[in-house]
Amino acid sequence: MELVDYLKMSKPFSNDRHKAHLNLAVTTSLLHAEIEHVLRPLDLTTPQFNILRILRGKHPNMVSVKTITERMIDKTSNTSRLIDKLMSKHYVTRIECPKDRRKVDISITEDGLNILLEASSLVEHAIGHSLNEISDRDITELNRILDLIRNATQSV
What we know:
There is one protein chain. By secondary structure, this protein is mainly α. The protein folds into 2 domains: 1-42, no CATH class; 44-124, Winged helix-like DNA-binding domain superfamily/Winged helix DNA-binding domain (Arc Repressor Mutant, subunit A, Orthogonal Bundle), CATH 1.10.10. Helix content is 63%, strand content 8%. The protein has a 3-stranded antiparallel β-sheet with strand order 1-3-2. The longest helix is centred in the first third of the chain and has 24 residues, at 16-39. It is elongated, with a radius of gyration of 19 Å. 14% of the residues are buried.
């Protein structure tokens, strides 16, 4: 479906850059909603899933809250609150530095690894469903263009 039809627009876009911007925003929203939908039955949010993936990548080592925050996809997430939620589910553990109580390290638990394995399978299936119809060549080109956009945005 064309974006103009999806948005039920009565007038065309003012230019192709405006269309591309809205296309990115709408598509991102749809992909995010699809991932949220598959994570909901596991009582996980996408930022919590992101934290678990970051921790799994460093497992069995501990990771500082600061490092987790820097690596989050959504930089506006309240990392400490998200970690508290994951702790209440027994998916992560927290250890305070004895010399500096402000420094806290986090690690993923066995329960966290297990739920992440299940969640990752569901997310991979959802992503595959969304992107399987796109050729490898087009995916490579899409990634190249998205890198250009992200790099231009980061310089602002």
